[in-house]
Amino acid sequence: MAAAPATDKAVKYLTVDEDHAGQRLDNYLFTQLKGVPKTHIYRLIRSGQVRLNKARAAADSRIEVDDIVRVPPVRVAARSQDPANTASTPPREFDILLEDDALLAIDKPAGVAVHGGSGVSFGVIEQLRRARPEARFLELVHRLDRETSGILLVAKKRSALKNLQDQFRSRATGKTYLALVWGNWPANKKVIDTPLHKYLVATGSGEGERRVRPVAKNDPDGMSAVTLVRVAQRLQHALGAMTLLEVTIKTGRTHQIRVHLASQGGPIVGDEKYGDFARNKAVHKAGLQRMFLHAWRLQFDHPASGERTELHAPLPPALQGWLDICTQPPSTPE
Q1: pLDDT tens per residue, range 318-328
Q2: Other C-beta atoms lying within 10 Å of the C-beta of residue 9
Q3: pTM score, two decimals?
Q4: 99, 124, 310, 318: least buried by Cβ within 10 Å?
Q5: pLDDT at residue 156 greater than cutoff 60
Q6: How far apart are CA 112 and CA 145, in angstroms?
Q7: Cα gap 70→34, rounded to integer Å
Q8: By the 8 A CB rule, do 313 and 229 touch?
Q9: Is 26 annotated as catalytic?
Q10: Which is catalytic among the residues 67, 82, 145, 276?
């Protein structure tokens, strides 16, 4: 029989030390509240019961040295109740693009979350930790949507995590995706500079679903978002014209590429949240079962050597196979 849950009845005030500086608030709480389900931690953050320096904070807020994190009384489930910490999380290795003492770069498949939480029991990071029980430190450097495939960085040292996250925050990295969109994307539409607003849609389960929409420049709830677009290839399919784009993001907002492209009349093929739903059904029947968005290239300064590093993840077979059955339309002047 599993041990009964225990309740910590006291409010805690945690002071952030150097080892945890630069982390996201949610990741910090995962390490401090062992045995508390991640879904509950996210609920505490969203409800404002967790405070950062006496103020409400989002799950992706970055913490710094000497920040004070208020943690309310929490019920700690027995260890066997937490899927991310038990044998119910299957160990898994992923295709490796680069690995050394400082970091691990993998090619994440579509359909796999990067971490557990919000209705997902486990993700890439929990599976990696189970596959590598001897690893002293494994932490996600950044995120990819569950439906997006491609390059994902995992730090193997605290110093590497802080260095790489600093690069992401200062926009010193280069993140380029391949996205297939409906229609003929105009070659002169190269920059999308539209603020985005993140909100929750009620799902009936009490958690809500994250959604994002473009807003006006002067909207107080808008967060700046900049996307650069280059036409890589124009294609024709029986279902209609499509354009393969190289998309580089200068900011890392939730669903940024998906919302920006859709807002400009080019929804991503197969995108079930922001796409063309009627066409998506036809695409599924034609053989493409996922969204055509892939984290293709990543550039960064190596946290140990300082050398500029460039990684590439080839298109997975499902996406490359779709391109192979498309044809190129007759060339026309741009």
Answers
A1: 999 999 999 88
A2: 7
A3: 0.77
A4: 310
A5: yes
A6: 9
A7: 16
A8: no
A9: no
A10: 145
